[in-house]
Amino acid sequence: MATATTTPSTVGTTGTRSVRQIVGVVISVVVGAFLAFDVVGKLTQPEAVVEGTAKLGFPIEQAYVMGTVLLICLVVYVIPRTAVLGALGITAYLGGAVTANMRVESPLVSTTLFAVYLGVLMWVGLVLRRPELLKVVGLHR
Questions:
Q1: Which of 138, 131, 132 is nearest to 23 (CA)?
Q2: Which domain holds residue 74?
Q3: What is the pLDDT of residues 89-111, one digit of tens each?
Q4: What tens digit of pLDDT does each residue of 51-94 get?
Q5: Other CB atoms closer than 10 Å to residue 135's CB: what's the count?
Q6: Angle subtended at Cα 42 by Cα 41 and Cα 47, rounded to the nearest 5 degrees
Q7: Is residue 36 part of a domain?
């Protein structure tokens, strides 16, 4: 005799996804769209990107490298099976953004920590999509 069981991830579902998973997907899409916009800017190099890159002290040619690295990490992030690996790469990329902004003494809360806010939001979206990740860091039993 089979019995139905409910898990926290299936309670309150809409179709086959829980509200938590849907919110996680929405957050992930917003973060992904922002990062895709950054990739396009770095690869097409409009004047604002050229000025910003110079202000941070990087040669403009490095914008292509940064854009390519971010694109690879973003592609890995949007594939569900490799999303955690992509998130790790994006986290490293965002850490470099924090360091670059600290080096030129950008405003702390509005500019330097923006990459931290984005990274935290990215991980919140990922954890909402895949709550089992909390077990890895010991925050869930």
A1: 131
A2: 17-136
A3: 999 999 999 999 999 999 999 89
A4: 999 999 999 999 999 999 999 999 999 999 999 999 999 999 99
A5: 10
A6: 65
A7: yes
For residue 10, being part of any structural domain is answered with no
Residue tagged 């909390």 (tokens):
134
Q: Is 13 within 8 Å of 4 (Cβ atoms)? A: no
Q: Retrieve residue 31's tokens.
A: 């973060």
Q: Which of 69, 65, 122, 120 is nearest to 93 (CA)?
A: 69
Number of domains in the chain: 1
pLDDT tops 90 at residue 20: yes
Q: Is residue 75 part of a domain?
A: yes
User: Structure tokens of 19?
Assistant: 């509200």
With 80 as the cut, is the pLDDT of residue 37 above it? Answer: yes
Q: For tokens 């800017």, what's the residue? A: 41
Name, in order, each residue with C-beta under 8 angstroms of 75's C-beta and a sequence gap of 6 or more: 86
